[in-house]
Write a structure and sequence with these properties.
This protein has helices at about 15-25, 30-35, 55-60, 65-70, 80-95, 140-195, 250-270, 270-285, 370-375, 385-395, 400-415; strands spanning about 40-45, 50-55, 100-110, 115-125, 130-140, 210-215, 225-230, 235-245, 295-305, 310-320, 325, 335, 355-360, 365-370, 375, 385, 425-430. The protein is an alpha+beta fold and about 450 residues long. The strands form four sheets. It has a five-stranded antiparallel beta sheet with strand order 2-1-5-4-3, sandwiched between helices. Strands 6-17-14-11-12 form a five-stranded antiparallel beta sheet. Strands 7-8-9-10-13 form a five-stranded antiparallel beta sheet.
Length: about 450
């Protein structure tokens, strides 16, 4: 009985109607429970002959009871693989143990399909322990099989993805190593080719000191700067330094042609202006006249002894190249302008700028390409180093020998960092300072 104001409990024993209805729900017969159970049941004789089977399993298999009971064996319901497993493992173990649980098998359906099941069997024994029949429970494992197959598929997909990723990483690593090897081979080939465009070393010249420096902006790209120093005759030496247009193989071909043309022209006519005129003719006829203009800037000089005091006379000719710079022994630094000179190889007849100077003992003549003066400086790398800064640098450095000059400028170039984005060549020629005479020691002993 409920209290006043409370709702009655529908399952309260005092409510006879509800109690009767609930009791009716629980009153299933044993036969109904067997036939309509949520799993399959069957009983077989010890030889496997089907003696009884419930409706649930018949519905799963799509078979009729009269087709099976007393006519077919349990193994007839199994797939080929299931039948083999039953004969080799299931039946022997069941006879030995009397019970097996949760064995995965496949049963055949009337439509030719396969039904994955979990089978549990138990032997029923008589009063004297003799085996009478086998009771078997069959659970539909379709959902479990689908789940397992999905897990397997996903595991296989994951393994395949991992394998593909490993393969991709291996291929990427192999490609990276091959690319590095290709870059190394290319860098080596370019280094060898670049060296072939420049002298291995400068020859020793009596009465002169020389030094050279070459900066390559990129190890993977041929530069266009060049220089040389060679003997014309018994007393005169020729030198040049320049920069061809472009980069890469085309620039290398132009550099090679320029070097060997200047060498041959200087040996034919030691006048620097004549050599540049010859070079201009060769480059114009080879390139510009055919519609593919190629050109260079170059300064070419000849040095010869001037007098017994060690002075050297230098005659220079320039085709559009930055002015040479002289560091004097007295501490001065001055440019040697060569006005009027134009790019070599652009016009059929290009004017050449000339100048002449004398190098005294302790003087150094510096030639350089525009990679030095066009190096970018400042916090934003938007300012050019320029000729004024170079002149101030040389003025502070003078007097300096060629070796000292090149060493100081080499450090300067390194300090430019990534602001030095062009090839740069430096060539210094100078007269060694005369040794300071020493006084003989005086003997004060009498």
């Amino acid at each position: 009985m409920c209290r006043t104001g409370e709702q009655p409990d529908p399952w309260e024993t005092g409510d006879s109607v509800t109690d009767a209805a609930f009791t009716a729900l629980l009153e299933d017969s044993a036969e109904d429970l067997y036939e309509s159970a949520p799993c399959g049941y069957l009983s077989t004789m010890m030889d496997g002959t089907i003696a009884r089977i419930n409706t649930t399993l018949l519905d799963w298999l799509g078979l009729a009871r009269e087709e099976l009971v007393g006519r077919r064996y349990f193994t007839d319901l199994l797939s080929v693989g299931g039948k083999l497993y039953h004969e080799t493992h299931f039946a022997p173990l069941l006879r030995m143990q009397g019970e097996l649980r949760g064995i995965a098998l496949e049963m055949k359906t009337a439509g030719g399909g396969r039904l994955p099941v979990l089978v549990s069997s138990q032997v029923k024994y008589g009063s004297e322990g003799e085996p009478l029949l086998i009771r078997t429970t069959v659970v539909d494992a379709s959902d479990r099989r689908a789940y397992e197959e999905e897990l397997l598929r996903r595991r296989q997909d994951a393994e395949k993805a991992r394998a593909e990723a490993e393969k991709a990483r291996a291929e990427a690593e192999a490609a990276r190593r091959e690319a590095e090897a290709d870059r190394a081979r290319l860098a080596h080939a370019l280094t060898v080719l670049q060296r072939s465009l420049l002298p291995d070393s400068l020859p020793a010249v009596a009465g002169l000191e020389t030094a050279v420096y070459y900066h390559t902006a990129s190890p993977h790209r041929l530069g266009g700067d060049f220089y040389d120093l060679f003997q014309i005759d018994g007393k005169r030496w020729a030198f040049f330094l320049g920069d061809v247009c472009g980069k890469g193989p085309e620039a290398a071909a132009l550099t090679s042609l320029t070097r060997y043309t200047l060498r041959a022209a200087a040996l034919h006519d030691p006048e620097p202006a004549a050599a540049l005129t010859t070079l201009n003719t060769v480059l114009y006829e080879r390139y510009s006249a055919g519609g593919d203009p190629r050109y260079c800037t170059v300064v070419h000089g000849v040095v010869e002894p001037g007098d017994e005091a060690g002075h050297m006379t230098v005659r220079l000719a320039s085709g559009g190249h930055p002015s040479a710079l002289v560091l004097r022994a007295d501490g001065r630094a001055e440019f040697l302008p060569t006005p009027g000179g134009l790019l070599v190889g652009v016009l059929p007849s290009a004017p050449v700028g000339t100048t002449e100077t004398t190098l005294a003992p302790g003087d150094t003549l510096l030639l350089y390409t525009d990679g030095l003066t066009e190096a970018r400086t400042g916090p934003a790398r938007d300012d050019l180093y320029g000729e004024d800064a170079l002149h101030a640098f040389a003025r502070d450095l003078a007097p300096a020998t060629p070796q000292e000059t090149i060493a100081a400028l080499g450090e300067l170039l390194k300090n430019f960092g990534d602001g030095l984005d062009d090839d740069t060549a430096l060539l210094a020629v100078g007269v060694p300072p005369r040794p300071v005479p020493t006084r003989p020691a005086t003997n004060h002993l009498r």
